[in-house]
Design goal:
alpha/beta; Rossmann fold; 7 helices; seven-stranded parallel β-sheet
Length: 246
């Protein structure tokens, strides 16, 4: 792979898939996700060549071994960009949320990204100007009821990103975070709805009058990958149509 190599977790749908489509023309992508079928579908839609798809569960006890073996088998000797996007959303009131639910949310939304980053760290350090982009959520900054486990895991992602940026600055690896608001992805019931009343209700909640689309988050990723962002690290970019300040 002569082009820059980007690893994208949660690439089988939603924001991750759109990030892949956005970066594909200029980078060689390694798409990670749990569904082989969905990953292959996304891969088939990508421009450019040299893209790889790898079915991977970030909560798997053998994660580190699986990633190491994949890199070795495909002769991946460097990583220029790591995008930690994989996540799962569970809505429940705290009084009804078990400790196991907290564990599951943190394993997927936080620890999976921590472990994947550790797997890629040596390869990231080999490239000047490499970068880690973590996808968090505005719920990690301004939670709403019935999201305690998810919000806590996303808050951890934001704080970790800042600490990691400080620690990796000496090696030239930049770390930034993006916190989307309500984006139309399959984790939400209204995704793709044809019900006019439901669409109007969801859109009307947003200060700009419409929910976000995956392209809005992918656009920020593209910007962070540009030369104009080479002096940007340790930042958390809130992209939410203004709902966090409403």
């Amino acid at each position: 792979m002569s082009k820059q190599i980007a690893v994208v977790s949660g690439a089988s749908s939603g924001i991750g898939a759109e990030i892949a489509r956005t970066l594909a023309p200029t980078m060689s992508l390694i798409l990670l996700g749990r569904s082989t079928e969905k990953l292959e579908q996304v891969k088939s839609e990508l421009a450019g060549e040299g893209h790889l798809a790898f079915s991977l569960d970030l909560t798997d006890e053998q994660l580190e071994t699986n990633v190491s073996n994949f890199f070795a088998e495909n002769k991946i000797d460097r990583v220029d960009l790591l995008i930690n996007n994989a996540g799962a959303f569970v809505r429940s009131a705290f009084s009804e949320t078990t400790v196991e639910t907290f564990r599951q949310q943190f394993e997927t939304n936080f620890f999976g990204s921590v472990r994947l980053t550790a797997c890629c760290l040596t390869l990231l350090s080999k490239t000047k100007g490499s970068q880690i982009i973590n996808i968090s959520s505005t719920l990690g900054i301004r939670p709403v009821p019935s999201t305690s486990a998810y919000s806590a895991s996303k808050a951890a992602m934001i704080n970790w990103s800042t600490t990691l940026a400080l620690e990796l600055s000496e090696s030239g690896v930049r770390v930034n975070c993006i916190s989307p608001g309500l984006v139309e992805t399959p984790i939400h019931d209204f995704c793709g709805t044809k019900e006019a009343d439901l669409r109007k209700a969801v859109d009307s909640m947003q200060p700009l009058g419409f929910v976000g689309q995956p392209k809005h988050i992918a656009g920020m990723v593209k910007h962070l990958c540009s030369e104009e962002s080479e002096w940007t690290t340790g930042s958390n970019f809130v992209i939410d149509g203004g709902i966090s300040i409403a």
